[in-house]
Amino acid sequence: MKALILAAGEGTRMRPLTAGTPKPLLLTAGKPFMEHTIDSLKGAGLDEVYILVGWREDRVREHFGDGQRFGLKIQYLLQKSRQGTAHAVGIADGELKEDFICINGDVVVTLPMVKELLAFRAGHQGSIITLVEMPNPREFGVVGLNPDATVKSIEEKPERPQSNLVNAGIYLFTPDIFKAIARTTPSPRGEYEITDSLRMLTGEAKVFGSVTKAPWVDVGRPWDLLKANEYLLKGLKKEIRGEVEPNATLKGEVSIGEGTLVRNGSYIEGPVVIGKKCDIGPNCYIRPHTTVGDNCKVGAGVELKNSIVMNGSHVPHLNYVGDSIIGENCNLGAGTKVANLRLDEKNVKCTIRGERVDTGQRKLGVIMGDNVKTGINCTIDVGTVIGENTFIGPGASVRGFIEPGSWLF
């Protein structure tokens, strides 16, 4: 069986992290986000994957290539203009002539999920929507099922949901989907929606819902990447390819990349992934659910907790970074510290695409774009978003939303 991964979007809700990096390549649990999906498909026995690309397609093609190093064949389809999910799937018409798995590029896909879907297909012939139970279904596409697991209804973000089952963005389609897409008309927001195409199919052919019990993460906004990172790190196994000095402590599942040096006095509690050619310590504390990319520095007196530090970034002297994402090629001046908990302990709010939103997170630090530099003794308040290519001078205190390319003193 073949698979199609929809990964053409710009990921504007993930800015500033996606200002220069397509969402599929964002570092998560030690590797680019979409690599976890491809590994899961390979583990389930699939040997051919189509990736639908669009924005920054060159970087996606460059990273994944023909798929040989991942143990399967990868081909690419191009979506020149984004006109909705049905339009995206329809681009594969003519390429995928048998049943195929289709995955939204922004959901966490694990091997048990794929195996679960394939096992369900063995007893149900037709298109299948993977469903997950959610306590707040109004924020998602809600699906109602009949007793025989056929789909009864599909509603987009209903005010009064008739079910707590939501569309997880993981499908198994028959070729009939392309006929339905050809007859799909634009939605009120001007896009061709795959849910509209599936709604047509429910009256003409069998469409089933397969309820997964596996944890599910939809990576739509930056803090969702931290959830994905935490979940995917649960399967981490200890692997030491670099050098660990004798008085450093590694506790639990910790992965150290080739060419990395962990200096004396460093204390690392897994699950933690540290990439290649990093300089760690001396005397730093890296707490669970942290990912450090390649060519990074985590220096003396630094504490990292539940964070992602992307490739080429330095957190070198007397810094605290908790529940945060640090983009590529950033440098924090000595004494720069990030707050991650409001004094009143209420949910943290963030500004995304000009809108102030409740993240639902009690702890959230900074979302920092690429190429940000801070001077010594800076303080960064909870929920701060710092745009790429920003310079923050010594002793500055920042909060809220900082525009890309800002100079603050």
Short description:
This protein has 409 residues and is of the alpha/beta class. Helix content is 15%, strand content 32%.
Which features does this protein show?
globular; about 400 residues; 2 domains; 38 strands; UDP N-Acetylglucosamine Acyltransferase, domain 1; Spore Coat Polysaccharide Biosynthesis Protein SpsA, Chain A; nine-stranded parallel beta sheet; alpha/beta; seven-stranded mixed beta sheet; single chain
Number of strand segments: 38
Count structural domains.
Answer: 2
Strand neighbour order, sheet with most strands: 12-15-18-21-24-27-31-34-37
**Are there runs of 5+ residues with pLDDT below 50, and where?**
none
Instruction: Estimate the mean pLDDT confidence.
Output: 93
- The CATH class of the largest domain is Alpha Beta
Q: CATH superfamily of the largest domain, please?
A: Spore Coat Polysaccharide Biosynthesis Protein SpsA, Chain A
Question: Structural class of the helices, strands and pairings?
Answer: alpha/beta
Question: What portion of residues is helical?
Answer: 10-25%
CATH architecture of the largest domain: Alpha-Beta Complex
SSE layout and pairing:
Layout: E1 2-7, E2 27-28, E3 31-32, H1 33-43, E4 48-53, H2 57-64, E5 73-78, H3 85-90, E6 100-104, H4 111-121, E7 127-133, E8 141-145, E9 151-156, E10 165-173, H5 176-182, H6 194-202, E11 207-211, H7 222-232, E12 239-240, E13 243-244, E14 249-251, E15 254-256, E16 261-262, E17 267-269, E18 272-274, E19 279-280, E20 285-286, E21 290-292, E22 297-300, E23 303-305, E24 308-309, E25 314-317, E26 320-322, E27 325-326, E28 337-338, E29 349-352, E30 355-358, E31 366-368, E32 373-374, E33 379-380, E34 384-386, E35 391-392, E36 397-398, E37 401-402, E38 407-408
Parallel strand pairs: 1-4, 1-6, 4-5, 7-11, 12-15, 13-16, 14-17, 15-18, 16-19, 17-20, 18-21, 19-22, 20-23, 21-24, 22-25, 23-26, 24-27, 27-31, 28-33, 31-34, 32-35, 33-36, 34-37, 35-38
Antiparallel strand pairs: 2-3, 6-10, 7-10, 8-9, 29-30
Helix pairs in contact: 5-6
